[in-house]
Give the backbone structure.
Amino acid sequence: MTHILQNKNDTLVVKVVGELDMLTAQEFREIVEKAMAGALVRNMIIDLDKAGFIDSSGIGVILGRYRKIKAQNGVMVLCGMNENIKRILEMSGILSFIPFCSSEKESWEIIAKKAFKGA
Amino acid sequence: MDRIVKNRIILEFDGRAENVSLSRVTVAALAAQLSVTLSELEEIKVATSEAVSNAIIHGYQNNPEKTVRLVCTLYEDWLEVEVKDEGVGIKDIKQALQPAFSSDPERMGLGFVFMQSFMDEVVVDSQVNLGTTVTLRKKISSSGVKNKAVS
Ligand SMILES: Nc1ncnc2c1ncn2[C@@H]1O[C@H](COP(=O)(O)OP(=O)(O)O)[C@@H](O)[C@H]1O
Ligand SMILES: [Mg+2]
């Protein structure tokens, strides 16, 4: 399940609840695309605190969104992943270029810092 | 490998995305009959998810009318998961197994990487136009003591 929590200061907060596999990745893609089409979105926070499972299809959809955000000079931050999910994301290599932290609050700080640097 | 079969399930299902979670949860439930650790269960779930997703996405090109067959067998201290499709098959298995190789530009080519990292043995048997069978085997520490480094 994917929830768009809010779109504040051009930053979309996406919360993943449950599993992110080939079925839910599709749902994730559609919901996020719709939100990005309907409003100005520069940055994105993906909150994985309530995510219980991820596989390569889930990682693929995160990477796809990262590329879009990056292409428009925005910042993406991942937050709140449990140990298993973190291990899998690490193995995939995406944590070497997508910033991550433990809470949504910290994510806002990372975005503020990076956006400032980029300006 | 121990040859005594402790339990076995055979599951056939439509190649629908909904059935990926069903298959990994089923395999995990069976694996839990051995003394697996929670992190081993997670590894088994990811590997199963990858193999079944591949059968649906690549083998059957997302045609939900095709049937995926899953056989999961428990031995004394081994788990075996066999995922079989009668789809397009793999022309070059060596290339398919290479990290980051994908025939689909939208995908990352991580499925086999995860299967190989999380299971002790991955065997791919495939013939073009006949289909693919992926067999995943994992040794389960029968003592139930965590003796596998997870780092
Ligand atoms: N069941 C299958 N039937 C046909 N081709 C497959 C199957 N499983 C894997 N492949 C091939 O192997 C490649 C690598 O698979 P994988 O590592 O899971 O990466 P991905 O799914 O991201 O492409 C796939 O892109 C596909 O070409
Ligand atoms: Mg795959």
Notes: Helices of chain A lie at 22-38, 56-71, 83-92, 104-118. Strands of chain A lie at 2-8, 11-20, 43-54, 76-79, 100-101. Chain A has a mean pLDDT of 93. The pocket of magnesium ion (ligand 2) is lined by residues A 56; B 50, 53-54, 111 (CB under 6 Å).
